[in-house]
Design brief:
Layout lengths: L2 E3 L5 E3 L3 E2 L7 H12 L4 E3 L7 H11 L7 E6 L7 H12 L4 E6 L10 H9 L3 E7 L3 H10 L6 E5 L7 H9 L3 E5 L11 H10 L3 H10 L12 H8 L8 H8 L18
Parallel strand pairs: 3-4, 4-5, 5-6, 6-7, 7-8, 8-9
Antiparallel strand pairs: 1-2
Helix pairs in contact: 1-2, 1-9, 2-3, 3-4, 7-8
The protein binds adenosine-2'-5'-diphosphate.
The site of adenosine-2'-5'-diphosphate (A2P) has 17 residues, from helix 9.
């Protein structure tokens, strides 16, 4: 199976569709329903994206049963509201009765204040699993020192160019699954010569090579596209393997120096 266990006993599919910056309209509905038709079983949205209604419409349009789909949304910390109540609002917008994963979008206001509300969201059945996003090593440590229920996922910017080995190791040590957003560098990494060279040799596309680098190491990945053919292309990553030499050539592209940070330049205060 192309999924991975979480420390709370649930499982996360390794491939998901990301819908950051997709407006709340037909483009988002289509992307979600195409992804599900093409075999994706994991959709990643956020309160801050403003497109949960369209994601919900895409889920229903696909006809795929709810219990086969893993849905993530993210608590928007800037409004300072109660995460559990905000989860209930997300459920209404999405038109579903539970989230599979609910994560704090970024540690604005500090890494711990929102966690009791996240735990409440889980206790009330709004979310089966809870986690965080954009947390660095120190923020994870601070949260783990206070949490009753530990986070099961930390979703961060991650690719061969942003390899964050210190953060990956800290997550593994704590039983937290690191999940990769912007795995294509929002498109920037697709033109790299090393990536293109490996793609040509293995008969795949640069996007497939970048995504395979993640899933071959069991790192869940959520590439964003609103084009059906690209959504399809990005899903064809479980029928080939990169060699150890390919993996180490890609590892050498890291520009972070193996950092424990979560994102190149934090965009929150
Ligand atoms: P589009 O949505 O127009 O298809 P990331 O997941 O790293 O954020 O990257 C998303 C960006 O990469 C989007 O601009 C998306 O464009 C583009 N993209 C996604 N998949 C592919 C692909 N297979 N080939 C080329 N560009 C892609």
């Amino acid at each position: 199976m192309n999924d991975r266990p979480l420390s709370d006993g649930n499982r996360i599919p390794l491939l998901g569709l990301g819908v950051w910056q997709v407006p709340n309209g037909p483009e988002c509905v289509d992307a979600v329903s195409w992804a599900l038709e093409l075999g994706y079983r994991h959709i990643d949205t956020a309160q801050a994206y403003g497109n949960e209604e369209a994601v919900g419409e895409g889920l229903r349009a696909s006809g795929v049963p709810r219990d086969e789909i893993f849905i993530t949304t993210k608590f928007f910390p800037r409004n300072g509201r109660d995460p559990a109540e905000e989860a209930a609002r997300s459920l209404e917008r999405l038109g579903v009765d539970h989230l599979d994963l609910y994560i704090i979008h970024w540690p604005e206001g500090g890494p711990t204040w929102a966690w009791p509300g996240m735990e409440q969201a889980r206790e009330r059945g709004y979310a089966r699993s809870i986690g965080v996003s954009n947390f660095d090593v120190a923020e994870l440590d601070a949260l783990l020192a206070e949490a009753t229920t530990p986070p099961v996922v930390n979703q961060v910017q991650f690719s061969p160019f942003e390899h964050r080995t210190a953060l990956l190791e800290a997550c593994e040590r704590h039983g937290i699954v690191l999940e990769a957003y912007s795995p294509l560098g929002t498109g920037r990494h697709l033109d790299d010569d090393t990536v293109a060279g490996i793609a040509e040799r293995v008969g795949r596309t640069p996007a497939q090579v970048l995504l395979r680098w993640c899933v071959q190491r069991e790192i869940p990945v959520i590439p964003k596209s609103t084009h059906r053919e690209r959504i399809d292309e990005n899903g064809q990553i479980f029928d080939f393997e990169l060699s150890d030499d390919d993996l180490s050539q890609l590892d050498a592209l890291d520009r972070t120096g193996g950092t424990g940070t979560a994102v190149e330049r934090p965009w929150w205060p």
